[in-house]
Amino acid sequence: MKLSDELKNRGFIHQISAENLGEILDGEKRVIYHGVDPSADSIQAGNFAAWMLLRHLKEAGHTIILLIGGGTGMIGDPKPDVERPLTPPEEVAARVIKLQAQAKRLLGAEVTFVNNHDWLGELKLIDFLRDIGKHFTVNELIKKEAIATRLSSENGISYTEFAYPLLQGYDYLELNKKFGCDVQVGGSDQWGNIIAGVELIRKKEQKTVHAITIPLIVDKSTGRKLGKSEGNSVWLDAHKTSPFAFYQFWLNTSDENAVDYLKIFTLYSLEQIAEIETAFKQSPNERLAQKKLAAAVTEIVHGSTVAMAVKTASDVLFGEGKLGNLDETARALVLNNAPLQIVKEDTLLVEVLVQAGLAASKREAREFIVSGAVNLDGSKVMDIETVLQPLQFENGLAILRRGKKQLCILKM
Q1: What is the C-alpha separation between 397 and 191, in angstroms, rounded?
Q2: Closest Cα partner for 72 from 166, 212, 175?
Q3: Which three-class secondary structure state does DSSP give residue 278?
Q4: Under 8 Å between Cβ of 183 and 31
Q5: Which of 72, 221, 260, 300 sits CB 3.0–4.6 Å from 254 for a disulfide?
Q6: Is the CATH code 3.40.50.12240 the one for domain 3-217?
Q7: pLDDT tens-digit profile of 330-378?
């Protein structure tokens, strides 16, 4: 299958600057760049889609440049609703370092990393206005969606953010001159900025270069995009989103999104995904697509060792496996990500259910036990006079469950 067809089938392609994608990607090998501004010191799930596209392009033999915007990050890409606060230069620089380290781990050392502060920081205003600004018209700039929206609002837009497209266009020109870069990829919301660079290079260098955008990743079940501004950020930095929470996010993907996310966020072949989809449709309750997705994405982002530990911990907490089977890493994950209740020997289980918040009262706790809704470390409890004994615990720990989703770790 041609690369262009595979990328379209995976859902990576939204807009292109040529008549067809094959014209850009199926012929000679290109030098392709993607830029990310340091609005944070980590990317999140929505941004990760573009990085996965870069991996596919890299494996197809194209040369990849990742630009981290140490310069443009001091200005800020215009948002459609509000002016971005200016970030202190030292904070921008610190974020650049962290983002580059994250990118090297996820994309590989063979990717070329650049920081646009290296050239934007050296620009002279008069030269920039004469050599670059002359090729942009205000008429063109005010047609860009974010700028047009801001111009129609009460607060308007500062010249600082208004000039952002010129800086991104200049980045493309700089990379074209230095590396022969002739394709830029980005999110669909970046189309106007990317085209600004395409046009600048055409006017300045009389060369044809290309633009590719990917669709914004939207949760079909909620209509919300996976992005920082939506309040549902899932970060790739383990300190911002723990590997356990990261795994759970993908595991809890809705049925409507699971197969689409497999195509975008994993390296499974389309043939493998088709097999997973068939099995998933035959037995949706087994959630095979979500399990494959969570394991694969967590392994890509956090490594195989952490991914296995997180999966094991998740299996123990949510119905499969036992605490005694956990290694030290998985055990720590369980203790850090589940409610914990300290208990004493010979305490009535009825009382423990209330203490652990699994029942509102002793009467309700007894009803849960009699109805068969209570499980202690894998064994159903039916006797309301049951008391806790060390033999019921493994290494001092046991899982107390009420129903399928309510649980607490007991530590004696």
Answers
A1: 54
A2: 166
A3: helix
A4: yes
A5: 221
A6: no
A7: 888 888 888 889 999 999 999 999 999 999 999 999 999 999 999 888 8
